[in-house]
Amino acid sequence: MTESPGEAVRSLLRGVDRATLATKVRDDGAPEGAHAPYASLVLLAVDQDAAPLLLLSDLADHTKNLQADPACSLMIDGTQGLDNPLTGARATLQGRIALHPDAGALRRFVNRHPSAAMYAGFGDFNLYRMTVDRAHLVAGFGRIHWIDAKDVFQPLPGGYALGGEEQGVVDHMNEDHADAVGLYANKILGLPGVGWRLTGVDMEGADLRRDGVCARLPFQKPVRDAETARVELVRLVKQARGRPA
After folding, report:
1. In the CATH scheme, what is the code of domain 5-151?
2. pLDDT of 81-117, one tens digit each?
3. Is 168 helix (H, G, I), strand (E, B) or coil?
């Protein structure tokens, strides 16, 4: 089944680990007339509903710009490794950034980016969440769409408990079932190497990482809590073991 434009943007968000953030240069940060957007590289994670999460330093120019004006754009690039990048998918999100002092979301970010653990607790680093108004998707020649945020982000269903249970699932899989995580990467996703770790679980899938490589393991159907996630992860292990070595 072909992804809808909104699903394609959400897949990009869940699949990449970095983005380009564009902010408006604040009035006191540039000479008169030089207030064009300022673009910078940022590490990216997403919340349970795929909303962008950024861990930013108060000392960074982009953070100072956001404190003056929270409007921003975020460029999500899914073209890495393509011979012709213009045939690949990328999306620009438009919206606003706000502080998001949520411990679970910060854990998601640090799991996604282990290197961030060394500074995540510093007083001048804060977690931000982006509220997206709309997205612009370019997914190859002729597939160009403006998309409302409601068509990108799925509301979490009633009774959704996985957000509070996620860390237990991640720790259990990495500590007790590291062989299964390796099977997901090697057999289902076709990725080489040992040492893959689970970094996150949400209603649509699981996130894996090995060194600097991130991967996305999609679920067959949405999950809502630790138990339904366990059922799906067991099914995927059985699937992986049924494939030829």
Report:
1. 2.30.110.10
2. 889 998 889 999 999 999 999 999 999 999 999 999 9
3. helix
Domain spans, the chain: 5-151, 162-241
The CA dihedral of 100, 103, 106, 112, to the nearest 10 degrees, is -140
- Give mean pLDDT, residues 182-197: 97
**Mean pLDDT in residue range 192-218:** 97
Handedness of CA 115, 117, 118, 124 (dihedral sign): positive
pTM: 0.93
Which CATH number applies to 162-241: 3.40.50.10400, 3.20.180.10, 3.40.190.10, 3.30.450.20? 3.20.180.10
Report the candidate in 19, 35, 133 with the shortest Cα–Cα distance to residue 74.
19
Neighbouring CB atoms inside 10 A of 98's CB total 11
CA distance 208 to 15: 10
Q: Of 105, 104, 151, 157, give the one whose Cα is nearest residue 132.
A: 151
Residue 105: partners with Cβ closer than 8 Å, 6 or more residues away? 47, 53, 127, 129
Place of tokens 């995927």: 236
